Amino acid sequence: MQDTLNALLAQARTELAALTARADFEAAKARYVGPNGAFTALMKQMGTVPKEQRPAVGKLVNEAKARLQAELDAALARIGEAEIAAQLGPAIDPTLPSPDAGPGSYHPLTLVREEMCRILRKAGFSVVEGPEVETEYYCFDALNTPADHPARDAQDTFYFPERARFGNVTKKVPDERYLLRTHTSSVQIRTMLKGEPPIRIVSPGRVYRRDTSDATHSANFHQIECLYVDRDVTVRDLKALLDYVFASLLGKDTKTRFRPHYFGYTEPSFEVDLSAQHLPKVNKEWIEIGGCGMVDPAVFEGVGYDPAVWSGYAFGMGLERLAMLLYGIDDIRYFYQNDLRFLRQFA
Ligand code: DAH
Question: Would you say the pTM of this structure is higher than 0.85?
């Protein structure tokens, strides 16, 4: 019996040592300790051992079984480790410096924003910022956009709840509702309330509208706003500035045109179209790019400027739209997905 057990153990040891795959291990295990396994067959022979020898033989068999089990456990552990090592790939030294990921690059919206600000700084404008959480006053009332105007509709605007938490108390929001600004025009009011003319500001930033996202809409996008207030400002100044801005941004063959429109805060008001046939993706002859006009006297009165003395122009436009034209991007959603394959193209 002792010899048979030893032979079996030696055979198992050699066989297990050669195994590398889990399936082969399972098959080998079955050959020894499975229902029809060689070791199981030996155990079954215990019944035929004379009674007085049974304790001694039983001890031998139990010892052999424990050793076999140890061999099986060791083989399984070795196979498991090999599997993990295969998943991890070649060994690395984690203390070495990381491979160079290359330089980062600016987001296309940042590039267009900075370029617009640079162009406008050259024309004497300074860059200011305003808050994204606004009140109805800055976003609508002071911009001569009355309470029944569709732009104020809850369908278009994200309003904050009427009750808000201040620290750990919930209070009714004072007089007017808070909202996420629907345009950067609110910065015009904040700027005028802060000081006296002349004013020459440009204000880029995020705006929010209840839009369902598709190739040309996003509930959160970016605008750039301009305000110029001085004596004797005319539509010609406005047109000249926009011509200069677009020629600088998109190339000197870019043309602009005004179409009469309505905005509460400007009178007259226009939509601005541009034509830039040299740009690859601009296949329509005229593309609408933003709104503008001469600051409405009612807006000046609201901020305490005398409309008989002061005149001005304002314009606003979407930065995504500009970037899409400039770089030939056909889906607004690319801007927000942070897909490196997209972003790397602007390095
Ligand atoms: N606020 C307008 C919009 O979001 C754009 C605009 C129009 C801005 C006319 C202006 C302006 O400053 O004068 O569509």
Answer: no
pLDDT of the residue at 282: 64
Mind listing the pLDDT tens digit for each residue in 33-72? 899 988 888 888 888 888 888 888 888 888 888 999 999 9
Q: Would you say the CB of residue 296 lies under 6 angstroms from ligand 1?
A: no
Distance 224 CA to ligand 1 centre (A): 9
Tens of pLDDT, residue by residue over 16-36, are 989 989 999 999 999 998 999
Three-state helix/strand/coil letters over the chain: CHHHHHHHHHHHHHHHHCCCCHHHHHHHHHHHHCCCCHHHHHHHHHHHCCHHHHHHHHHHHHHHHHHHHHHHHHHHHHHHHHHHHHHHCCCCCCCCCCCCCCCCCCCHHHHHHHHHHHHHHHCCCEECCCCCEEEHHHHCHHHCCCCCCHHHCCCCCCECCCEEEECCEEEECCCCCEEECCCCCHHHHHHHHHCCCCEEEEEEEEEECCCCCCCCCCCEEEEEEEEEEECCCCHHHHHHHHHHHHHHHHCCCCEEEEEEEEECCEEEEEEEEEECCCCCCCCCCCEEEEEEEEECHHHHHHCCCCCCCCEEEEEEEEHHHHHHHHHCCCCHHHHHCCCHHHHHHHC
Q: Which atom of ligand 1 is nearest to the CA of 227?
A: 12
Could you tell me the distance, in angstroms and rounded to a whole number, from the CA of residue 207 to the centre of ligand 1?
12
Distance from Cα 9 to the centre of ligand 1, integer Å: 87
Q: For 79-128, what is each residue's pLDDT tens digit?
A: 999 999 888 888 888 898 888 777 889 999 999 999 999 999 999 999 99
Residue nearest ligand 1's atom 10 by CA: 315
